[in-house]
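User: My collaborator sent over this chain with a note saying "see what the structure looks like." That's all I know about it. Can you take a look?
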Amino acid sequence: MSSDQIDDVEIATFCGRLTCGKAFIQTAGRGRPKEFCSETCRRAADRDYKRARGRAGVLDEQLRRTRHEVAAYGRKPEEGQWTPAERVQAEIQAQTALTRATTVLELGASSERLLTELQALVMAIRPILADSARQAAQIA
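Assistant: Without extra context I'll predict from the sequence alone. Here is the result:
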């Protein structure tokens, strides 16, 4: 099969915009494949994405403020809930552990040193991921 024949192959696909989903035909070959059925849908999908990202940011901020207000009442947080200060501290520890482990990997340190840094990284990231999973389960 020659390269001219490969360029002539047509593939049916669907528009990447969630509210459209229209089927369209695209030609296989070089270049980036189309994700949207038209330029109008591409622009609309970009606007939809930016709106959704903005709404998510606003909701994240509202959630953060609400948790802060609950913590301000002086009561202990619900079991398994982190205070804002605890969350920030855990994120700082995780970032520090990640930086150290990355440096050790880049410098090619001994296996013992590498193991120690990777264990510290796992211990720093595990609580953050567990908290995120717990929050996702509560939302669902």
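A starting point for your reply to your collaborator: Strands lie at 10-14, 23-27.
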